[in-house]
Amino acid sequence: MIRPGSPHPLGATADENGTNFALYSSVAERVELCLFDDAGRQTRWHKLPECDDGVWHGFLPGCGPGQRYGYRVHGPWVPDEGLRCNHSNLLLDPYARALDGTFTWNSAVFDYALDDDGPLRINNIDSAPFVPKSIVTATDTPLPQGPRVPWPETIFYESNVRGYTMQHPALDDNVRGRFGGMRQREVIDYLKSLGVTSLELMPVHAFIDEHHLARRGLRNFWGYNTVAFFAPEPRYADIDAIAEFRDMVRTIHDAGIEVILDVVYNHTGESGGHGPTLCFRGLDNLCYYSTEPGGPDVYINDTGCGNTVNVDHPQVRKLVLDSLRYWHKVMGVDGFRFDLAPVLGRHNHGYSAAHPMLTEIGADPDLAGAKLIAEPWDPGPGGYQLGHFPVRWAEWNDRYRDTVRRFWRGDDDAGPEFAERLRGSADLFQKSGRQPTASINFISCHDGFTLADLVSYERRHNAANEEDNRDGHAHNYSRNYGVEGPTDDPEIKTLRRQQRLNLLATLFVSQGTPLLLSGDEFGNSQHGNNNAYAQDNEIGWVDWSGLRADPAFNEQVRKLIRLRRALPLLHVSDYVHGSLETDIGVLEIAWLDADGDRIEDHEWSRLRRKNVLISSTDGDGVTNKVSILINGLDEVAKFSLATGNDDTTGNDDNWQIEFASAAAVSCADAAARVPGHSIAIVRSGGA
Question: Which positions are annotated as active-site residues?
Answer without folding.
Answer: 339, 375
